[in-house]
Amino acid sequence: MPPENVEWIRQFGDAWSRGDLEAVVAIVEDQLAKGHIAADFEFEPLYFDRVYTGVEGLRELWEDSIEAWEDYHAEFDEIGDLDYHVLVLAHVTGRGAAGGVPIDERIAILFRFQGEKLVRAKSFASKEEALQAV
Question: Please, what's the b/e burial string for 12-37 (b: 16 or more CB within 10 A of its CB; e: otherwise)?
């Protein structure tokens, strides 16, 4: 895995944790222009029962997260290079918007590449689950 891919994923995580959607989109669009992300890349988060596609899907995921959670925060704690995958261990906190139920969990996000191009990211409840998907 080129170190550049690990680095832009780190920048993506930093922007997401700051709550800076425009920076998230700018990073993704820059990587799209460089050919490091497929235009129809998919993201399957742990907490929503759907797959989000492309930049517009990222915006939808952002909006869905804001609607579903109060005080939502996700921070990338650790990033590891696994050849054609990048594994991120993240800490997610917040409260459900409807009932105020708190969440404080560690999750894993597996970014899958074909060559040097990101094609899919999927969240898992644990590092072990994510590693089984490699």
Answer: bbebbeeeeeeebbebbeebbeeebb
Tell me how far CA of residue 2 lies from CA of 7, 8, 38, 63, 82, in angstroms.
Answer: 9, 11, 16, 31, 11
For the question of whether the overall pTM of this predicted structure is more than 0.90, the answer is: yes
47: phi then psi, degrees, rounded to nearest 5 = -95, -5
Spell out the alpha helix ranges (H) of 1-134: 3-18, 21-33, 54-68, 127-132
Task: Quick: pLDDT tens for 71-99.
Answer: 888 999 999 999 899 999 999 999 999 89
Q: Is the CB of residue 110 less than 8 Å from the CB of residue 78?
A: no
CATH of domain 3-132: 3.10.450.50
* Beta bridge mates, 91: 75, 106
Q: Provide the residue ranges of all domains of the chain, joining segments of one domain with +.
A: 3-132
Give 34-62 pLDDT, tens digit per residue. 999 999 999 999 989 999 999 999 999 99
Residue 59 burial (CB count, 10 A)? 14
